[in-house]
């Protein structure tokens, strides 16, 4: 059946049932018959959450004697799985699924295929709608969407008939009223305390079936117009004007607000007989489902932006216009959201916003770039966030340790306060040495540079006490743009960074996109099963020479009259470096030949991240002016361990002999060729690990701005030569616990971590 006409028929029949005067049980009995008839299934069943269990409440095709008898707990069986995860499940062979539970009283022995969707109200699963067929078969997406639409209407019927108390889910949440710790993924480091504030009150769609399709279309057009006006108005505010980092992000966000495909899909849902609100929610649910199944981080982020816009549209349609930002934060708050768009975060009062916790979220999300610039800690991937946290709960976000402390005890709060006092004292100590050089007690000078990626970062060089920027990640501009950034935009960014840095050095790393940093305008280049080791960084740039030529020219023009330091990422072989350098040199010669100003000099560097390159240092080092060791990628490649996998996060120690020996090997080889070595990455920003790096000869680190103070204070208090001698002995002795030995030696010097 054509999807629109089929859906309209089933919705009209459901509307007639709901409008009737029959008892609730009789209505649900009619509903399952309608579903079975219209979808051509031998079985249609409704399970409702009652007294904490999922009870078979109505069925067509299963044994009627099983009604009100068959019960499954949340998470039990296929039905319990759907309710617990709040996601559809379709199977050609249900019995092959590990969660399948056989209930003989239902008489379902003859049925093979199964498809079920959750019935959701106020973010909680209150039941499940399922169909079954005798023959094994795959369910089409349009069939699953049809079931979801029916489930949406059922939610309204169930609520109206008071079959499931809406407060039941709230009571289940309230049962979790004691203190608890929830784990998540560190997205932006930091510590914050405040009251839980939900980013937006959930818009509950009360009316799902429309009596007037034309009216609903008109309401949707008006809502789209008002939403676009809001976004255009926001982009006119000073902090979002062209030339700012935030403007780049909001341009992509705006693109989705004007996307015709999105509005067309919502109109198609209205054609089936849904109200405008229900149509938006129907398309939004589909996008959320797609988001969970997409591995590509860029596409996931685009769908997150679309989810954010859907919420805006729903609020306009329903008249519920206020978010927590628009209502205003009255006290220190921890913001709770499923996901968050960059525009939404920028609306909040920075004085009261102490942290953000997301049920989803990713390291590549636009909102993370904004939060990092705002200095707001963000914790993501916190499962069951909405079911465990209540509005107004006291929360402590410890993003650095990946923890959310919910309703903390007095002792926990006291510990937090002590930690804050300690951090404040540490900050005071770091402020005292901010403008002093990082020179150890025995006279070794350690250069401390900062990592950066936004224009605003460059202005914070003096605030951080950095010696310059040792790694400027140019890809951020590419990641937040819907199209390939034009040369003029790139040049303006690079020139702004150099101007802000003044006489401090800046090392620009050429664009590292592809792999897990996918962009839509290079979609054909990012279909990697293993993105970290795929078509990315320099490999992609050399394959897309037009992209690299544009960036090279932008860098050269931005650095006219100055020294340009440019570094190539993920070099695997010396010939790759030579080819990249030749490409930049060719652009410099073209500029000079045309009489355009050029840099007074260009220094070329290579990122050492791929172990294969270390085997050819004798070939590489004579070709380069400097090298930087990227410890994040080098470690994961060396140990064949995905650094983003939480099960492996603590398994491989940065102070293991393997990684320290490899880094020392690079340092020693570079010293023979008089080539400076900088260590970039998270390893250099951890005081004990940084001490180990200095003990094996590293004299330049490029780390996060927040890490410079602690490292500088540690260097000025340390005597490095004895540690270097001990490190040689530890590396030569099998089985030594270097972390324990180094920590003990550091404590004997009075160093604390």
Calculate Rg over CA atoms: 29 Å
For this structure, what is the CATH homologous superfamily of the largest domain?
Phosphohistidine domain
What is the level 1 CATH name of the largest domain? Alpha Beta
Mean pLDDT score: 83
CATH architecture descriptor name of the largest domain: 3-Layer(bba) Sandwich
Low-confidence stretches: 169-176
Classify the helix fraction into a percent range. Answer: 40-55%
According to DSSP, the number of beta strands is 22
Terminal CA distance reads 67 Å
Widest beta sheet: strand line-up: 7-14-13-9-10-11-12-8
Report the sheet-strand fraction: 15-25%
Describe the structure.
- The protein has 753 residues and is α/β, with parallel strands linked by helices.
- It folds into three domains: 3-174, 2-Layer Sandwich (Beta-Lactamase), CATH 3.30.450.40; 180-410, 3-Layer(bba) Sandwich (Glucose Oxidase, domain 1); 474-604, Phosphoenolpyruvate-binding domains (TIM Barrel), CATH 3.20.20.
- The chain has 30 helices and 22 strands.
- Strand 5 and strand 6 form a beta hairpin.
- The model is unreliable at 169-176 (pLDDT under 50).
Short structural description:
By secondary structure, the protein is of the alpha/beta class. It has three domains: 3-174, Beta-Lactamase (2-Layer Sandwich); 180-410, Glucose Oxidase, domain 1, CATH 3.50.30; 474-604, Phosphoenolpyruvate-binding domains (TIM Barrel, Alpha-Beta Barrel), CATH 3.20.20.60. α1 packs antiparallel against α2 and α27 (687-695) crosses α29.
